[in-house]
């Protein structure tokens, strides 16, 4: 028996005519595939293309902004470069005809071949900037890319409104607002240099108070003030660029003098009553009655010169006679 080996099966062979046909078709197949790829490769090589390191740059006000625009492929040795700023429907040139336009000439320049650098950025510079490249020697002669610039602004001193005095047990609202900072700031309130929590109930130090702080709107609301709420208040507005503080303002919490208020009301009522009685008495005594003219109060008019009056039997009947002296 020994080491018996399994019989080897012969590999299948194609007929000679089939092999020859396959060998003849192979060059044609390769040529066909190459013809399909040539247009794609031609467009890839001959079309100008742009890329950017960062299409959403964020900078602080008064700092430098780098707007990246890179030509990744082109056949044109000296393509035309343009930069435009787009605000809504308005478009203005930043770089055109190989030079900066307008006030951009004092604080902007091209870096490398196509990127734009803006120095001393202000909040007015935020917006969309478009890099446009025209390459006449390429099949697709034009390409563009947008870069959206965001400028963060530090808050300015907020405006605070603090009531100067509030009676015990009444509600009170303190306001703090800032409109220059970007992103919009958050607000925090302080009393006598102590930071106030968002809710007085969350801190045992303020358990005798009843207030809440809204960090988004900047309002400090007391539902019911107590004597311990008297103090100097101020607010701080903060964003990721910086912070700003308003001036301290004093708020006094005073007790209501109920007895004094009642006494004052009684005094006013007494004065009104006495005034009314005095006017009635004066009216009864005739101080406010006008004397009407009657017959007894008639006075004889004075006689002009040269006229004599004769009294008749009837009272009040006068006739005159002429007595002119020439």
Summarize model confidence as the mean pLDDT.
81
Instruction: Specify the structural class.
Output: alpha+beta
Q: Kindly, what is the distance between the CA atoms of the first and last residues, rounded to a whole number of angstroms?
A: 200 Å
**What does the radius of gyration come to?**
51 Å
Give start-end ranges of low-pLDDT stretches.
320-326
Strand order of the largest sheet: 2-11-10-5-6-7
Strand content: 25-35%
In DSSP terms (H or I, runs of 4 or more residues), the helix count works out at 2
Main beta-sheet strand count, sense and barrel state: 6 strands, mixed
Instruction: Give the overall silhouette.
Output: elongated
What letter string, H or E per element, gives the SSE order? HEEEEEEEEEEEEEEEEEEEEEHEE
Helix percent reads 10-25%
**Structure summary, number of beta strands:** 23
Please give a structural write-up.
There is one protein chain. With 326 residues, the protein is α+β, with helices and mostly antiparallel strands. It is built from two helices and 23 strands. The strands form six sheets. Strands 2-11-10-5-6-7 form a six-stranded mixed beta sheet, with no helix packed on it. A hairpin with a 2-residue loop joins β5 and β6. The longest helix has 31 residues. It is elongated and about 135 Å long. The N and C termini lie far apart (200 Å). The relative contact order is 0.10.
